[in-house]
Description:
Layout: H1 2-16, E1 21-25, E2 31-34, H2 36-42, H3 63-74, E3 78-86, E4 92-103, E5 109-118, H4 120-142, E6 146-150, E7 156-159, H5 161-167, H6 187-203, E8 207-214, E9 220-231, E10 237-244, H7 248-270, E11 276-278, E12 284-287, H8 289-292
Antiparallel strand pairs: 1-2, 1-5, 3-4, 4-5, 6-7, 6-10, 8-9, 9-10, 11-12
Amino acid sequence: xxxxxxxxxNFKLMFEDAPLAYQSLNxxxxxxxxxxxxxxxxxxxxxxxxxxxxxxFIDPSxxxxxxxxxxxxxxxxxxxxxxxxxxxxxxxxxxxxNGRIGHNDxxxxxxxxxxxxxxxxxxxxxxxxxxxxxxxxxxxENSPVCTKILDLDFNLQFMSSAxxxxxxxxxxxxxxxxxxPFDFYPESFxxxxxxxxxxxxxxxxxxxxxxxxxxxNGKEIWYQSTIVPIKNERNELDYIMVVSPDTTKHKExxxxxxxxxxxxxxxxxxxxxxxxxxxxxxxxxxxxxQAEE
Length: 293
């Protein structure tokens, strides 16, 4: 009996000084015990807590949740849940609970055993990341530029409405989780894009290519695509973004300009007088056959 008593005392001392917050509740949900880490985390004195109802120590909006789910917890072996708990000074912490049920010899409920972890900063970081991603997604969605997000297997996860409209796609969700480039793109575009996606993924470099595709109605569209590998907060490659401004008008203007230049060249070439065109620095840009003679 003496050895058992000493063992229990040693266990109690170890539990009191454990670095993780611990609490135990009776069948009514009242505190039986808490350790020092629990008191330090929430700023209470022990007499503030023992014998009190746990529901008075959580966010008031969660009391109904506790009343509904605590009886269910008592019939389970273990559980993991989250509660917002105000500290004694009024500051609210986000606390993750990992709990198990202690039973009597006859199998009936005896008390709960719960380890508490303060994840407030983690929650704040997650919320900031979510808001940032939401803002980025809204920006991409409303951008006038065709923008795609691909997973690391190059399956399409998202495409901005600008691209959907340009390509005449009625339901872009049918293409989600399927390989990019699209099947209706020409092979000349697909082969170069796949090679560049692989290169960007393996090297982490930003790569640009310009090539034509055809929309679902057969209309040619020129895209200047910039492939950007995006990393997460651990500096690990997370996904691939492909930003593709429509350069069709620019290409058409270039084509028209070349045509006009060629027409002018032919006209000058056929003229019966010698013509020389030169720069301000007197370097010759063009001379027809008559001028050469």
